[in-house]
Design goal:
Blueprint lengths: L1 H14 L8 E11 L2 E5 L11 E5 L1 E3 L10 H16 L7 H19 L4 E5 L11 E6 L6 H7 L4 E3 L8 H13 L4 H6 L2
Parallel strand pairs: 3-6
Antiparallel strand pairs: 1-2, 1-5, 2-3, 4-7, 5-6
């Protein structure tokens, strides 16, 4: 564990970005990678080699956008389980179905961010992950949180990973409501 922490800190130091827990940073949105990851450029000293950093949205997990991604099968099972528990429907999803939901989630995020150029990244207890990504809550200019907007609109699963649990209660409530009200891809899941 200690080795991993040293590796993360040294990676961020090499790239010139030092983030503190429970802090807020201005970020210029450069790209939407998928439904739960965007790229940001920070207006702070950074390495000449790194122009922007991936920011993984805390508390949510959108379906993968590639069939070969390792989580695709796991996400299919999770979606099937929730559909059965909530709608009492037994469905079978292929990896391609999951990818289609992932593309919907990415499209949703791109649409939300189409006219947003500057946002605020709020870190939690752990500001980065073992991949070197920034972990954050994205606050939009209108005062709403992107993470919450995605899950409330029915385009994400819950992903609560301690110690980053600052908004977990709100996300759980919003997730249940989105599923019950058949929002986003939950609407399609009830039609199988």
């Amino acid at each position: 564990m200690r080795f991993l922490l040293v590796l993360i800190i040294s990676t961020l130091t090499v790239f010139g970005l030092e983030l503190k827990p429970n802090s807020r940073y201005i970020c210029y949105i450069t790209k939407v990678l998928d439904g739960d990851t965007i790229k940001c450029r920070f207006p702070y000293p950074v390495s000449k080699k790194v122009k922007s950093y991936p920011v993984r949205l805390i508390g949510i997990d959108t379906p993968e956008t590639g069939v070969r991604k390792k989580n695709t099968g796991k996400q299919a099972k999770e979606l099937e389980k929730i559909a059965f528990q909530t709608y009492h429907k037994h469905i079978e999803l292929s990896k391609k179905d999951v990818v289609n939901y992932g593309i919907e989630a990415k499209d949703f995020v791109e649409n939300v961010l189409k006219n947003v150029y500057v946002a605020v990244v709020e870190t939690d207890v752990q500001p980065t992950d073992h991949y070197g990504r920034v972990l954050g809550y994205i606050w939009l200019p209108d005062g709403k949180m992107l993470n919450e907007k995605i899950i409330c609109s029915g385009y994400a699963l819950l992903l609560t990973i301690p110690p980053n649990v600052k908004y977990a209660k709100e996300f759980r409530k919003c997730f249940r409501k989105a599923v019950e009200e058949k929002k986003g891809f939950w609407r399609e899941l009830t039609g199988y």
